Amino acid sequence: MIKQFTFAFFLSSAVFISACQSNADTRENSASIAKTDSTTAIKTASAESTPIEPIETTKKVADAATILARPQVPILCYHQIRDWRPKDSKVAKDYIVQINDFKAQMKMLADSGYHTILPDQLYNYLNTGAALPEKPIMLTFDDTDLDQYTIAAPEMKKYGFKGVFFIMTVSIGRPNYMTKEQIKALSDNGHVIGSHTWDHHNFKKYEGEDWVTQIEKPTKKLEEITGKPIKYFAYPFGLWNTKGIPELKKRGFIAAFQLAEKRDSIDPLFSIRRIIASGYWSPKTLRNSIVNSF
């Protein structure tokens, strides 16, 4: 059973929405957490023997009980990587990790022996129990912010880290957001590009043409940019419902990422949990949060 989170490590859906909306003051659009340590039960392999590049996904999907029984891999969710500004609200700062703090967090992860994995590796682990590196962790980034390319990616490169960048396509090429060329460069350099809808509307409210506007068209655009299939999706605000999962499956997605809610008992691959890396967290707080949240 997933433990109940304290407020320090878990925000309700309402607060997620409020925080993402408060970030709109500095954006053109509303753009907008399995206990693990060195003794984790996750089957591991040496970092050298486990590829960093995406591996071929399995064709057979394990039953939900099997997937839910596997220890969860810690997955961090980042948004903006920049220094705080006077007009940033207290809530917004949860979503803005200052530059030196981000650098210290990456160093802490490396010094603590964590190895980044990518979605195909996680998918195969959940389905078949495929080996992962010792102390696996996934780094994800939402909303297409330029600082993810100019600051986060270069810092991750120092430690051989790879990440997943969930792109909101309406923002591509706009001021303070990534361009098509930068998104392709991330993909070409071994990071994974995923979909985060067109303009960050609440997934739970989609109906009719929303599936075309928010899912189909953005997916096609990202595939054209990267030259690769887009198989992974992140829910805006972390909000999801079971009704929408078949719609994602029909459009070629094999897994989707939420935030801190309980995983779905029928489709756990479409409710994979992440924690938001708070702008208030020191490296020590982040390390404790990883251990206590999964």
Q: What sequence of helices (H) and strands (E) makes up the elements?
A: HEHEEEHEHEEHEHEHEHEEH
Distance between the termini: 11 Å
Counting H and I runs of at least 4 residues, what is the number of helices?
A: 9
User: Which percent range describes the beta-strand content?
Assistant: 5-15%
Largest sheet: 6 strands, parallel
What is the mean pLDDT?
Answer: 86
What is the radius of gyration computed over CA atoms, rounded to a whole number of angstroms? 17 Å
| Proportion in helices | 25-40%
Q: In terms of structural class, how would the helical and strand content be classed?
A: alpha/beta
Number of strands: 12
How would you sum up the global shape?
globular
Low-confidence stretches: 1-40
Q: Quick gist of this model?
A:
The protein is α/β, with parallel strands linked by helices and 294 residues long. It has helices at residues 13-22, 64-69, 99-111, 119-128, 146-157, 180-188, 210-226, 245-250, 283-293; strands spanning 44-45, 75-78, 80-81, 96-97, 115-116, 132-133, 136-142, 163-167, 192-195, 232-234, 255-257, 275-276.
Protein architecture, described:
The chain is α/β, with parallel strands linked by helices. Helix content is 32%, strand content 13%. The chain has nine helices and twelve strands. It is globular, with a radius of gyration of 17 Å.
